[in-house]
Amino acid sequence: MTGKGERKYADGSIYKGDFKQGERDGYGEIVYSKTNEWYKGEWSLNIRQGQGTLFNKARNTFTGEFRNHWPNGFCTIQI
């Protein structure tokens, strides 16, 4: 699939956003059902990469640059 779409994964997580050849790529939002985390932002080949915001189960918010799934560089953290 290429373009905008929605995918529900076997673990119950749901992604809505851009796809490129079946991979999360571009802008999208995902809710991880097992960890109760939520991410919205840029993706590259299924990896959180670029600008985004991650809300974790402790209700902390990480906003800024992501590299290889993790906050990297300048990032604002709200606790």
Q: Can you offer a commentary on this structure?
A:
By secondary structure, the protein is mainly beta. Helix content is 0%, strand content 71%. The chain is built from no helices and seven strands. Strands 1-2-3-4-5-6-7 form a seven-stranded antiparallel β-sheet, with no helix packed on it. Strand 2 (14-20) and strand 3 (23-32) form a beta hairpin. The chain starts with a strand and ends with a strand.
Rg, alpha carbons: 12 Å
Q: Secondary-structure element sequence?
A: EEEEEEE
Mean pLDDT: 93
Strand order of the biggest β-sheet: 1-2-3-4-5-6-7
Number of strands: 7
What is the share of helical residues?
A: under 10%
Q: What share of residues are in beta strands?
A: over 45%
Shape: globular
SS class: mainly beta
Please report the number of helical segments. 0
Give the terminus-to-terminus CA distance: 37 Å
Specify the biggest β-sheet.
Answer: 7 strands, antiparallel
Unreliable runs, pLDDT <50, ≥5 residues?
none
Sequence-ordered SSE layout with sheet pairings:
Elements: E1 3-8, E2 14-20, E3 23-32, E4 37-44, E5 47-55, E6 61-67, E7 70-78
Antiparallel strand pairs: 1-2, 2-3, 3-4, 4-5, 5-6, 6-7
